[in-house]
Amino acid sequence: MIRLASDFFSTKNDPEQLDVTPEVMEQLEQIHPATLSEEIEGDGPVVWILLIPTTADTMHKFLSGTYSESQLLSHTRPGETFTCIYLCSALVLPEFRRQGRAFRTALQAIREIRKDHPIRQLYYWSFSREGKTLALQLAEREGLPLSERPEATRDNSDS
User: Fold this and answer.
1) Can you give the pTM of this predicted structure?
2) Minimal CA–CA distance to 75: which of 91, 62, 93, 88?
């Protein structure tokens, strides 16, 4: 899944994006156990969701383009009180798409984070129509205002 994420998002070629390495995964786990969520079927994950809870200040700096994804993560520290969640990535293997799996996995992760933090906002950086739709559905279901990093919206409609 890490390879799939790297290929889809081209993280190796885009310094604005978070490159999910084992070290980053460990850092995310320290922030909250639900930051990385997956649905496993058979031999491995078929859905992989990455959410990053943050402060409102960090969210605004990211949305304005002041922070990259890597900077967003480096300014998010375990033990802080988080009021926002960044929907960083949602990946579903092609044969498992359009079944609601990403929505269910992300919703469960958001609810786990909300048990520990007073989340009042969801935000995202869209790389596909499906990603935007997922963000809209999650925000509606959880009753959260939704913000998008507008200048970086991309259309990878073949994903």
Assistant:
1) 0.85
2) 62
